[in-house]
Each structure stands twice: as structure tokens, then as C-alpha cells.
Specification:
With about 90 residues, this protein is mainly alpha-helical. The protein contains three helices and no strands.
């Protein structure tokens, strides 16, 4: 994947990471705010592995892409978790 394509896809990747995080949290009942960073980190690692297996680019570029998109989405995913564990 070219650098320009990765830069162009950053907003799409962040939206995708947000949706992935919300889906993962919806599977956890009750959703806990403490779980959000762990879920997002595991999601970024899983996406990195899948992207690398598909040969989409160099490891460091993919790591930067997925890390950035998941970090951008992290506060928005966490905002959706209500205090007291009722996500």
C-alpha cells in the first residue's frame, strides 16, 4: 500500500476502528471502561497481522496506520461506555 493511499485512508480507518471497538464492547456484558484500551490494542494488533498476511505493505507502515486509527477512535469508543458498566 502506498504512503499516499495510507494517508488518504486514515479517516476511513479511524471510522472502521470505531465500529470495531463498539462491536467488541457490545459483545461484553457489562461493558467496562477499563476494557476499552485493551480491546482497541488487540484490535490494532489483529488488523496488523491480517494486513501483513495479505501483503498490504511493510510492517512498520501498517503498524503506524493501525495504531494511529485505533488511537484516534479510542476516546470515541470509550465515550459510549456508560459509568457503572452498562455499555
Amino acid at each position: 500500500m502506498s504512503l499516499w493511499l495510507m494517508l488518504a485512508l486514515l479517516p476511513v480507518g479511524a471510522l472502521y476502528a470505531f465500529a470495531t471497538g463498539r462491536l467488541a464492547l457490545s459483545a461484553l456484558r457489562p461493558a467496562r471502561i477499563e476494557a476499552v484500551p485493551v480491546i482497541m490494542a488487540l484490535s490494532a494488533i489483529a488488523h496488523l497481522i491480517a494486513s501483513r498476511l495479505l501483503g498490504l505493505g511493510p510492517v512498520l507502515a501498517l503498524l503506524a496506520f493501525w495504531s494511529f486509527t485505533h488511537l484516534v477512535a479510542l476516546p470515541f469508543v470509550a465515550r459510549g461506555v456508560r459509568p457503572g458498566g452498562a455499555g
